[in-house]
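W.,

You were right to be curious about this one. When I first looked at the sequence I had no strong expectations either way, so I just let the prediction run and decided to look at it fresh. Below is the sequence, 247 residues in total, followed by the output.
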Amino acid sequence: MRRHGPAVLLALTGAAILRISLFGDLYLRYVRPGLRPYLIVSGAALVLLAVTVTALARRGDGRGGRGEAPGQERGGVPRRPAPHGPRAAWLLALPALALLLFPPPALGSYSAEREAERRAARGVGTFPALPAGDPLDLTLGAFASRAVYDSGRSLDGRTVRLTGFVTRDDDGTWYVTRLLVSCCAADATTARAEIRGADGPPADTWVTVTGTWHPRGEQGSDAAWPPVLDVTDVRRTQQPANPYEKR
């Protein structure tokens, strides 16, 4: 079994990658949609490599067994045993098994609350005009950027609709939150809006809220963050297939 250990590890890892990328949308918990083809190719390559390693190992076993005594090459010359890695290397199979059998959930309120409130240092300026019609569906990232940095105050008088999961402060203040990624979950940052005018459901519940922007603080300052939404409607919703927004 130890002889085929590398092939088993390769096969497990490849199967886990294919499981989350080829047979569903689980990969969206960890990376952006555009990376799916690369995951599929990588998973298939690992499985193919595992098959190749297994075939070569069996071929070597077959050649070494033609009338030779164990531990000997042809002509009676002692054969050096094949090197084996440490048994602890099998621990590398645990992450692959976990991904294959029990894929971890997407990042939620725990990660959002511990991610520093980093905001793009883009400065205050004007933003492109918003489409006509209310309510206006916006991402959390777009809403937060306009609320904090738009000198043209394009959100004034507009009814907006935001979707995200609930996070809470110790004092009971609650927020609609979304994690923004550039590449994958490892580089996620947080966008959120403080919700006023309605009680919120428990943390990590996905909701769609409708309301109007409540200006506060000087734009571009710390006092303007996080932006505030006076809500008229709060509805629970299902977590979307892609729980992240593009940063």
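Here's what jumped out at me. The radius of gyration is 27 Å. And, maybe more interesting for your project: Strands lie at 136-137, 159-168, 174-181, 189-196, 206-214, 228-236, 244-246.

Coffee later to discuss?

I.
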